[in-house]
Amino acid sequence: MELLIGSHTDIVGWTETTRGRNEANSMSGLQDRVAIVTGGGRGIGRTIAQVLAQKGMRVGLNDVNIVAAETTAQELRAEGLPVLALAGDVSRKAEVTAMIDRVEAELGPLWLLVNNAGILNAAPAAELTEEAWDEAFNVDAKGVFLCSQAAIKKMIPRRGGRIVNIASIAGMIARTGEIAYCSAKAAVIHFTRCLAVEMAPHGITVNCLCPGMTRTEMLTVTAKERGLDLDRMVKLIPAGRMAEEADHAHLVAYFASDEAAHVTGQVVAVDGAQSLSHPYMSCEH
Ligand SMILES: NC(=O)c1ccc[n+]([C@@H]2O[C@H](COP(=O)([O-])OP(=O)(O)OC[C@H]3O[C@@H](n4cnc5c(N)ncnc54)[C@H](O)[C@@H]3O)[C@@H](O)[C@H]2O)c1
How far is the CA of 55 from the centre of ligand 1 (A)? Predict the structure, then answer.
C-alpha cells in the first residue's frame, strides 16, 4: 500500500514536472506565424502543413493539383486548423509571385517557406529525354529558386524569416536510374548553402532536409514502375524502417522555431542512417 501511495505521489510529481519540462521544451516562435508549404496536396508536404498548423502556424498549402490542394486544406480545416489552399506551379514565376502575394494579403507576413514540391523522373542516363531532364530541373531545382526568391523579397525588409528546402538523400549519394532527380536534388543542397550565406546578414535562415525512403505515392508509384521490392529495401535501412512523414515535419518545425535562430545552411538527412549504409540499394541488382 505504501508503495502504491508512494508511486501515486511520484506519478503526480512526475506529471507536473514533465508538464513543466514540456512547456519549457516546446518550440517557440511558431504561434500565429505564417507558413507556405509547396506540394502540400499529399504526402510529406501534407503532413508538414498539418504539423505546422497543429503547432499554431497559419499555413498556405500549395499544389499544382488544385483539387488535391483544396481537398487537403478542407480536411485540415475540418480538424480546426487554419489552412488556405493555394493553386500554383512552383516552376512558373508568375504563379509563384501570385501565391506569395495572396498569402501575405490573406494570412499575414510570410515567416516560413517550405520548398517541398518535387517530382521524380526516373530513367537511365542513356534513355532520359531532354524533356524529362528539363522538367525535373524546372520543378525540383528552379521551383526552389523561384519560391525562395519571391519569399526573400518579402522577408529581407522585415529582417527575418525561414526557408526549409526538402531535397533528398538522392542528392547526397549516387543512384542508378535517377540521374535527373539526383542531380536536381544535389543542386538544391548547394543552393541551400549559398542562399544561407547570402541571407544570414538579413536574419533569414535557410536549411535543407533530406528525406530517406518515405512511403508516399512518389515512392510507391516509382517502385511499382521500376519493379523495386520496397520490403527488401527497408531491410537495408539500419534503423529497420522507412521514415514517417511526421519525422520530417517535426524537423521543419524546429528549423522554423526561435530555438533554431542560429542554425543555417545545414543539410540534415532524416533517414535512419540509410544514406550512410553500404551497399546502398543493392537489392536492385
Ligand atoms: N517519398 C520519399 O521517399 C522521398 C524521399 C526523398 C525526398 N522526397 C522529397 O520529398 C518531397 C515530397 O515528396 P512526396 O514523397 O510527398 O511526393 P508526392 O509525389 O507524394 O507529393 C508531391 C506533391 O507535390 C506536388 N507537385 C508536383 N509538382 C509540383 C509543382 N510544379 N508545383 C506545385 N506542386 C507540385 C504534387 O502534385 C504532389 O501533391 C519531394 O520534394 C520529394 O522529392 C521524398
Answer: 22
